[in-house]
Amino acid sequence: MTDFLVTNKMKKKDFIQHRTPFYSYDLKLLKETLEEAKSAAKKYDYHIHYALKANSNDRILKIIHEKEFGADCVSGNEVKKALEIGFPSSKIAFAGVGKSDEEILIGLANDIFAFNCESIEEIDVINQLAKGQNKMARIALRLNPNVDANTHKYITTGLEENKFGINSWELNNLIDRLPSWANIELTGLHFHIGSQITSMTPFKNLCIRVNEFNTWFRERNIHIQHLNLGGGLGIDYHEPEKNPIPDFELFFGVFNQFLQPFSHQEIHFELGRSLVGNCGSLNSRVLYIKKGIKTNFAILDAGMTELLRPAIYQAYHFIENVTSKSENKEFYDVVGPICESSDCFGKKIELKETKRGDYIKIHSTGAYGEVMSSKYNLREQNPVFYIE
Ligand SMILES: *Cc1c(COP(=O)(O)O)cnc(C)c1O
């Protein structure tokens, strides 16, 4: 893939003349966001692992690594990528409901911080593989707290009806088996209730459940070294320019207020979207304005192959016509060129009067954007611009 670093020498005007579509990243905003998250977490001695799945672009990962974040991985390749960038294995957590044997072996070979385990069956397999390698595997139990994240159903993960995590009724069975797993060291409890959570209430409810689980283990004399509260903090997709950086102080403050860890328990988080979401944009041009029965379609040269979120979870992104000089505003259904009806970025979007060739910026695409792009319809691989 072609990478361009846009510095002061290369003017903004030059980069928007490039063939569209393409992603661009504001590295200054990324760094400011990371600094704010870091200083808010430092206040309480909290540890942050960056969730690579939100954006695993090398240049972005290097910056996150330089700021000394840990890594949260959901595949063997993400573990490999984190190591390659330089994240220390002692700061790598490995989550995921379906880890293959091969992926588990990568984690074992590198003595990672913890496997976040999602079932008794998985712990059994990790134990066997660790035995074969003569290793001890550190694990955290991903527990299902049955807390509603009040977010889109496809990004809700902490309810008993979801495929994720170990449910509370399985815990007695699990701890009965614990002594028989000779190559497993249980070090933590892990939770992740969902994504794009903008109210603090679900996080408060999570704390209350975590305290109950934590006490339950303590009463059974099981020493838990770390609590991992996962990620999920949302960003402002509606007014990204007004609120480019999420309120990390408010977020960590909720945990400080409601979580009751025992002494010496470390507190970890796995943030993805909130760290990288607002620093990315998808840049596109209007191919055609097509008159429909009820609405005009603005057909872009970017589609669901570049940005999948609107098609799979009706996600909202702020869309802006950057080049129109018109004083008039009109409503458009903003769609892509892909042969799927769900290839739509937004219905009834108000834009400055738009014509063929106008330059359209889709905001807040730094998380779950470029990483989810596909070659469907044999689409081109696009270049990426980084703005310093
Ligand atoms: C996706 C994921 C995260 C990150 O979620 P964000 O909403 O991007 O902060 C953290 N932990 C786990 C286990 C995940 O699957």
Automatic annotation (TrEMBL):
It comes from the Bacteria. It is an enzyme of class 4 (lyase). The active site is at C339 (proton donor). The modification N6-(pyridoxal phosphate)lysine is found at K53. It catalyses: meso-2,6-diaminopimelate + H(+) = L-lysine + CO2. Its EC number is 4.1.1.20. GO terms for biological process: lysine biosynthetic process via diaminopimelate. Keywords: Amino-acid biosynthesis, Decarboxylase, Lyase, Lysine biosynthesis, Pyridoxal phosphate. Residues 35-276 form the Orn/DAP/Arg decarboxylase 2 N-terminal domain. Pfam families: Orn_Arg_deC_N, Orn_DAP_Arg_deC. One of its GO terms (molecular function) is diaminopimelate decarboxylase activity. Residues 23-366 form the Orn/DAP/Arg decarboxylase 2 C-terminal domain. Pathway: Amino-acid biosynthesis; L-lysine biosynthesis via DAP pathway; L-lysine from DL-2,6-diaminopimelate: step 1/1. InterPro entries: Ala_racemase/Decarboxylase_C, DAP_deCOOHase_LysA, De-COase2_C, De-COase2_N, De-COase2_pyr-phos_BS, Orn/DAP/Arg_de-COase, PLP-binding_barrel. Its cofactor is pyridoxal 5'-phosphate. Belongs to the Orn/Lys/Arg decarboxylase class-II family. This is Diaminopimelate decarboxylase. It comes from Bizionia argentinensis JUB59. The gene is lysA.
